[in-house]
Design a protein that fits this description.
Blueprint lengths: L3 E2 L4 E5 L4 E3 L6 H7 L16 H14 L11 E5 L5 E8 L6 E8 L9 H15 L5 E7 L3 H9 L3 E12 L2 E11 H11 L1
Parallel strand pairs: 6-7
Antiparallel strand pairs: 1-2, 2-3, 3-4, 4-5, 5-6, 7-9, 8-9
Length: about 200
């Protein structure tokens, strides 16, 4: 995957449906709209959308931001179609282990759901992270009410590692926190078999 540059942004990865790129100033309009609409809001920890939770999460992010090697891959990329329309984002973050990143993805434009865009974007993101680091493992967590995310994770090579049962109570239901992981050697084997 070659990096391409443009005057305003950098393309980190390109697939057949989407590209991953750095942020543009013009992305702020769609981002603001996404904060109040879209199916993604009901799937990405919706209980964290209260004002109190937002303030608490912002405080934690400021306290937890560790110093990182400047040569490390991007922490976030915009998912865009080939007209450069932003569709959502992918992220990476660390929990406690210095050899493991966790990833997240949100497709925020409803008309692009269930059409392979998220699968390709997450595949490109995992490839980008492994290719541009020496990290040993990438983890992915999701909630039991999101079977589409579980299917995508397994489809691109993540291995089910278990769950923490009934970790969140939401809309009269207890939800499990489901864990997936991909080791570098598993990623390398998958890449070898695709060639």
């Amino acid at each position: 995957m070659a990096k391409e540059s443009n005057q305003e942004y950098e393309i980190l990865a390109k697939g057949e449906l989407v590209l991953l790129r750095t942020h543009l100033k013009t992305d702020s309009g769609p981002y603001q709209r996404w904060q109040t609409q879209g199916e993604w809001l009901s799937l990405d920890a919706p209980w964290e959308r209260t004002e109190e939770d937002k303030q608490q999460n912002q405080g934690e992010k400021k306290r937890k931001s560790p110093d990182e090697d400047r040569s490390a891959p991007q922490k976030m990329a915009v998912i865009a179609d080939f007209t450069n329309k932003p569709l959502g984002w992918v992220t990476r973050y660390s929990k406690r282990n210095t050899f493991v990143w966790h990833v997240g993805i949100d497709i925020c434009e409803d008309e692009f759901l269930n059409r392979g865009y998220g699968t390709e974007a997450l595949t490109l993101w995992v490839d980008y992270l492994f290719e541009n680091s020496n990290y040993h493992k990438i983890g992915l967590d999701t909630w039991s009410f999101n079977p589409r995310m579980m299917k995508v994770a397994e489809k691109i090579g993540f291995i089910y590692e278990g769950c923490q049962r009934e970790m969140q109570f939401w809309q009269d239901e207890w939800l499990d926190l489901v864990h997936y992981g991909m080791l570098r050697k598993e990623w390398e084997a998958r890449r070898f078999h695709q060639q």
